[in-house]
């Protein structure tokens, strides 16, 4: 009985080690030669330049510009976003205000934050 158990354990160990050496290795250089890289943000900018207006489009363009520290562009996209709707998450108000402060439009930034206060999201300090 112990001999059978020992053989079973050895067989299990060798079967796992044998299967581990049959892994496929993918070479990414060959894969990248077949597929073209598409810059999505440039595509979105071309769509916006053609006159297409969408909340989702301006959110994506503004977020991308903001995350890449292109705050002049972010202020432009957030301005277009806020011209379409004011029903946005609080982070868009903050990002828009930060972008405006970066390009030295402090009065507009204060007005954006006031809209957020009126909306009732910001609580006054006690």
Question: Could you characterize what this model shows?
Answer:
There is one protein chain. The chain contains 7 helices and no strands. It is mostly helical and 126 residues long. Helix 3 (40-49) packs across helix 4 and helix 5 (71-84) packs across helix 6 (90-102). The N and C termini lie far apart (77 Å). The model has no long low-confidence stretch (mean pLDDT 80).
Blueprint of the fold:
Elements: H1 2-20, H2 28-34, H3 40-49, H4 55-67, H5 71-84, H6 90-102, H7 106-119
Helix pairs in contact: 3-4, 4-5, 5-6, 6-7
Over all CA atoms, what is the radius of gyration? 28 Å
> Tell me about the biggest sheet?
none
Percent helix:
over 70%
H-E string: HHHHHHH
Overall, the morphology is elongated
Q: Structural class of the helix and strand makeup? A: mainly alpha
């Amino acid at each position: 009985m112990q001999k059978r158990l020992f053989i079973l354990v050895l067989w299990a160990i060798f079967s796992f080690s044998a299967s581990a050496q049959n892994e496929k290795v993918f070479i990414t250089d060959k894969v990248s030669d077949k597929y073209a890289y598409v810059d999505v943000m440039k595509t979105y900018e071309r769509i916006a330049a053609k006159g297409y207006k969408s909340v989702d489009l301006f959110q994506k363009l503004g977020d991308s510009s903001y995350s890449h520290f292109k705050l002049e562009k972010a202020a432009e996209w957030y301005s277009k976003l806020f011209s379409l709707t004011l029903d946005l998450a609080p982070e868009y108000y903050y990002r828009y205000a930060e972008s405006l402060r970066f390009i030295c439009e402090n009065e507009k930034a204060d007005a954006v934050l006031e809209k957020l206060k009126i909306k009732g999201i910001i609580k006054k300090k006690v």
